Amino acid sequence: MYSILLSLFPLISLILSGYFLKQKNFLNDGFWVGAEKLNYYILFPAMLFGNLASATIELHLVKTIGLVLLGVLSIVCIGLYALRAIYKTESAQFGVYMQSMVRFNTYMGLAIVATLFHQQGMIILAIALAMSIPVVNILSVLALTNKEQMKFYSVLISLIKNPLIMSCVLGALFNATGLSLWDGFGSFLKQLALCSLPLGLLCVGAALQFMQLKKDVNRLILNTLGRLLIVPALAWLVCQILQLSTLETQVLVLFFALPTASASYILTKVLGGDSQLMAGVISLQTLCSAITLPFILYFIT
After folding, report:
1. Fewer CB atoms < 10 Å away: N or C end of the chain?
2. Nearest to 266 by CA among 37, 26, 27
3. Using CA atoms, how far apart are residues 73 and 256, in angstroms rounded to an integer?
4. How far apart are CA 16 and CA 203, in angstroms?
5. What is the pLDDT of residues 192-208, one digit of tens each?
6. Residues in contact with 119: Cβ distance below 8 Å, sequence separation at least 6, in sequence order
């Protein structure tokens, strides 16, 4: 447990540093907007492309990860839509619940996996990201959109414009060609990747809005327990049924134990969802993950 806490300490400290820097107005809002944009469009996609372009990807591994993702996401979505039918939840709130259960804080995931599971773990996570990012974006947009507003073309365009999806697709295609990255360009991508993780974690902290926790307390607590404990337990069960290796199980359970993505707030606001509820969900999940992640990692290692 001590080694896990030791590994997580700098990551949690970066998130807290981002929060306090934002609260004290040490850096103006323009900095955080620019930092998020730089990370989202340049640094983070460079990391994903570099990992996938140079990874040794086995077809068996892709199939295995795909089965786990399909199993867990299918069960979660069926459960959420069943609850929506029972409680007659509007799209504005249902989209928040969907994102809170299927989206993930990629910055935290990459930082933890890079620290604890190194290159082999990063390959597993990169494949999981490449396969899940398009899926969870589609699920999120559909959940937030009323039936009468749903247009296939607009959904498709938003996915094509997503830099995370494109970097994964291009990285996988480059890998499939069998070519190798030029050493100079590979080193350039590694330097961008090194910038991405700490900047991303600072931005995660800066995005926290704890004032929103005063509203909908019961729903927020149930949502957080479901995301941080029940969903990873479900992922562990699926991994056991499929008899995955220890490393594959560790990375995939961790993947499903991550809090939801900070970017969920932006998507919710753009599509007219309950952005205040989304802000509360993001903040509480991120805060509680500092407690749940060490215990989950201890259980699976």
Report:
1. N
2. 37
3. 10
4. 10
5. 988 887 888 888 788 77
6. none
